[in-house]
């Protein structure tokens, strides 16, 4: 019996290998499954977030971080609010002014100010760029502006250098390894047996890669625009849609050209497999980011500070160790409130106090920085009375 089983296995092995090598669909999905298993294993080893600790109310920004760095660590990514928080911090420190020009506020440097040595690197970078490149005309708060987008890109680089490795890790090496493995299912699905076929496959993927990368970066703006348009047609929404369309058209053109090459030469299944692998790579690009041990403690402190900013009731402020309720405190922490998405609650708290305290004086300085989740992000800046000293 044992000899018969051995003979059957010996006869079946070459046949199984032949079927395996002759079935590109089977090889494709085996390779795709292997990529999924790789990502799951690497995420369980490197991408798990540490267990959260006890949240304690914080009355100061944790670790003396700038508002922009607070958001960057909190979200582990750079976005519009990170940029706004950096600009507002310069305004709160009386290094710049915020003024309306057209439908968007612009930030202008106050002449004669020189406190760059006291600023965090990201704010010092932003201030230098405003001074050197924008001059008296100032800088727009809209990231769709080419010049503003360029400054934001540089600011994101500075933030990444300060945060990655200390407060969170990206595990990009693992993601790059997964992206390389993701080419195997596409290759097996395309059945590229000759050099010219391999070159066509590589050329098509290279043509699609930049368009896909930038289109994914623009997706959040699509959702934001759709939510904003639900309130009816407005000139600002229409203008933003046109600018977004101008950015999307080249991306779609690159994706369409690459997809046409793949479809004509290798069939539609290659497109499906490529789309699945790209989606998997993008998902784990975000999932593989994880706080360090120090970063986990910092996130707990950030949450405690966020709870303080968002508590509309006065009880946290009435504690002995709580900060004094002065207009300068409102303006000083407003950039942090914008960074942590609680500017409405923070403004409501202090505007209510301003109505009950005669020594407070607020002016009609209301600004809309932009839209977030379809809603305008508005702020109110105040003018403090002369007899009140500024809290630094």
What does this 3D model show about the protein?
- The chain has 392 residues and is mainly alpha-helical.
- It folds into 2 domains: 23-50 and 172-287, no CATH class; 62-166 and 292-381.
- It has helices spanning 2-22, 24-47, 67-75, 80-92, 121-134, 146-163, 172-181, 183-190, 195-229, 235-266, 268-287, 293-310, 315-318, 327-339, 343-356, and strands spanning 96-101, 104-109, 139-140, 168-169, 290-291, 365-372, 375-381.
- The strands form 3 sheets. It has a 3-stranded antiparallel sheet with strand order 1-2-3.
- It starts with a helix and ends in an 11-residue tail after the last strand.
- 28% of the residues are buried.
- How do the strands line up in the largest sheet? 1-2-3
End-to-end Cα distance, whole Å, is 88 Å
- Write down the overall geometry: globular
Beta percentage is 5-15%
Key features?
2 domains, mainly alpha, two-stranded antiparallel sheet, 65% helix
How would you sum up this structure in a few lines?
The protein has 392 residues and is mostly helical. The chain has 15 helices and 7 strands. It folds into 2 domains: 144 residues, no CATH class; 195 residues.
């Amino acid at each position: 019996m044992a000899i018969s089983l051995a003979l059957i296995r010996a006869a079946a092995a070459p046949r199984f290998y032949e079927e395996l090598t002759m079935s590109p669909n089977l090889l494709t999905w085996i390779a795709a499954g292997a990529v999924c298993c790789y990502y799951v294993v690497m995420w369980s080893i490197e991408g798990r977030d540490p267990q959260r600790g006890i949240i304690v109310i914080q009355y100061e920004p944790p670790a003396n971080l700038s508002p922009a760095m607070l958001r960057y660590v909190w979200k582990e990514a750079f976005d519009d609010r990170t940029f706004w928080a950096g600009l507002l911090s310069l305004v709160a420190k009386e290094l710049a002014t915020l003024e309306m020009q057209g439908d968007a506020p612009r930030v202008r440097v106050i002449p004669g100010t020189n406190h760059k040595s006291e600023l965090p690197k990201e704010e010092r970078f932003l201030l230098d760029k405003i001074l050197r490149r924008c001059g008296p005309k100032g800088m727009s708060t809209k990231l769709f502006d080419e010049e503003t987008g360029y400054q934001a890109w540089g600011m994101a680089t500075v933030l990444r250098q300060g945060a990655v490795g200390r407060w969170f890790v990206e595990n990009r090496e693992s993601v790059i390894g997964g992206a390389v493995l993701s080419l195997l299912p596409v290759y097996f699905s395309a059945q590229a047996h000759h050099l010219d076929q391999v070159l066509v496959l590589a050329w098509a993927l290279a043509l699609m890669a930049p368009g896909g990368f930038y289109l994914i970066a623009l997706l959040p703006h699509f959702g934001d625009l759709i939510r904003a348009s639900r309130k009816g047609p407005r000139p600002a929404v229409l203008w933003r849609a046109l600018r977004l369309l101008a950015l999307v058209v080249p991306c779609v053109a690159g994706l369409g050209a690459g997809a046409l090459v793949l479809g004509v030469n290798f069939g539609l299944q290659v497109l499906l497999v490529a789309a699945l692998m790209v989606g998997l790579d993008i998902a784990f690009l975000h999932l593989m980011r994880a706080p360090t041990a120090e970063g986990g403690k910092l996130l707990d402190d950030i949450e405690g500070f966020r709870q303080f900013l968002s508590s509309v009731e006065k009880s946290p402020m009435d504690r002995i160790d709580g900060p004094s309720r002065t207009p300068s405190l409102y303006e000083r922490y407003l950039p942090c409130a914008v960074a942590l998405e609680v500017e409405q609650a923070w403004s409501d708290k202090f505007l209510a106090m301003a109505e009950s305290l005669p020594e407070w004086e607020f002016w009609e300085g209301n600004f809309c920085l932009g839209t977030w989740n379809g809603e305008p992000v508005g702020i109110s800046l105040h003018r403090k009375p002369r007899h009140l000293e500024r809290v630094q």
